[in-house]
Amino acid sequence: MAITSVRKVKITDLELKDRLVAINRVTKVTKGGRTFSFSAIVIVGNENGIVGYGLGKANEVTTAISKGVEDAKKNLIKVPIYKGTIPHEQTARFGGADVFIKPASGGTGVKAGGAMRAVLESVGVKNVLAKSKGSSNPHNLVKATIKALLELRDVQTIASQRGISVEKVFNG
Question: Mind giving me the DSSP string for 113-163?
Fold first, then answer.
């Protein structure tokens, strides 16, 4: 279940901020004892419509985080933001995680929990209502939220797909 994107973004002088969503410690038992390694899921975004996620694995936490940031920079997507919120309601599912995001009026803030909050804040959404159903696994929640953001369409995209003007989209 890989997320494919048609709205890839190239890194050219972007001010990307990274957020650590989760760190997982993995133990491997060998004949010499236990060996610990770490996996980190990281979100990067410019808080202006561009966001990406990455997974880094290493024997040390800091190395895992830096690998995650590098991976996230390779998976950037562009998200339409309209007046500080998203253009319309959207649901998405990845694995056992089911997410629902809904636009909100000004002053509402980001009403989302955990991994979803990190993604929505990194993309630059200021007012949104979000609900996660099903699994609370941060990996699947992040992927489901990114999938929901990928499926968002702005008014210009809808008008061009229907072959009508922007005014007709609103007036029917």
Answer: -HHHHHHHHHHT--SEEEEEEE---HHHHHHHHHHHHHT---HHHHHHHHT
Biggest CA–CA distance in the chain, Å, is: 71
Q: What is the mean pLDDT of each run of 10 residues along the chain (172 residues)?
A: 49 80 94 94 92 95 95 92 89 94 91 90 92 92 94 82 78 69
**For residues 50 and 27, is the Cβ–Cβ distance under 8 A?**
no
Structure tokens at 7: 């709205």
The DSSP secondary structure of 76-115, one letter per residue, reads: -EE---BTTB-SS-EEEEETTEEEEEEE--TT--EE--HH
Helix/strand/coil for 38: strand
Q: What's the CA gap between 145 and 134, in Å, rounded?
A: 13
Alpha-carbon 74 to chain mean position: 13
Model's pTM, two decimal places?
0.86
Q: Reduce the DSSP state of residue 3 to 3 states and report it.
A: coil
